Amino acid sequence: MSDKEAFSEHDWRRLLTSLGEDPDRPGLQETPHRVAKAWKHWTSGYDQDPVEVLKAFEDGAEEYNELIVVRGIPVYSHCEHHLAPFFGKATVGYLPNGKIVGLSKLTRLVDIFSKRLQVQERMTIQIANALMEVLEPKAVGVVVKCRHMCMESRGIRAIGEETITSAMLGELQPNLALRTEFLALTRD
């Protein structure tokens, strides 16, 4: 993006003014700088490559043939429709096919896709597809549970409701026993 197109602190000051605020009052003087910095962090997933994060290990994994699942991965994202936050937890699992990835890399993968303007459904399948494409496992499962501030703080005001999305790829689609095992492992 060129400097001409970049959203600047000046633009955040204009937003505050358009809301009826005085961006020069003491409580708001640093807000444009803080908000610009926050949005840079909240959208840092655009600058990260999931393929680089998911560097696989082949040492010792050849014989492991059971599900590997990481639960409780934090999700903090913003919906692309209202720029409102949505947050919750993800569970990511896979059935290796000779390659494994460091467990922390599953958390980083979720972080990459959540730090983009999103809809939960697309984010869920992006996580699953990236894992499937890079590791080439026998199966991948992703379950994401989030609360959406666009639903809770405006419109329907559905306070505390969770949206649950899932993606089941590879052997998790036709194999009911494997799917059942994965879903049992996702429960708290």
TrEMBL record:
Q: What enzyme category does the UniProt record give?
A: hydrolase
Question: In what residue span(s) does the GTP cyclohydrolase I domain sit?
Answer: 9-186
Species of provenance: Massilia phyllostachyos
InterPro entries assigned to the protein according to its UniProt record, in alphabetical order: GTP-CH-I_C/QueF, GTP-CH-I_N, GTP_CycHdrlase_I, GTP_CycHdrlase_I_CS, GTP_CycHdrlase_I_dom
Q: Name one GO molecular function term.
A: GTP cyclohydrolase I activity
Keywords carried by this UniProt record: GTP-binding, Hydrolase, Metal-binding, Nucleotide-binding, One-carbon metabolism, Zinc
The family note in this entry says: Belongs to the GTP cyclohydrolase I family.
Residue sites binding Zn(2+) per the record: C79, H82, C150
Q: What is its EC number?
A: 3.5.4.16
- Subunit record text: Homopolymer.
SUPFAM superfamilies reported in the protein's UniProt record:
Tetrahydrobiopterin biosynthesis enzymes-like (SSF55620)
Protein name per its UniProtKB record: GTP cyclohydrolase 1
So, what pathway does this thing act in? Cofactor biosynthesis; 7,8-dihydroneopterin triphosphate biosynthesis; 7,8-dihydroneopterin triphosphate from GTP: step 1/1
The gene it comes from is folE
Query: Which lineage?
Result: Bacteria, Pseudomonadati, Pseudomonadota, Betaproteobacteria, Burkholderiales
Instruction: Write down the chemical reaction(s) this protein catalyses.
Output: GTP + H2O = 7,8-dihydroneopterin 3'-triphosphate + formate + H(+)
Which Pfam family is one of those matched by this entry? Answer: GTP_cyclohydroI
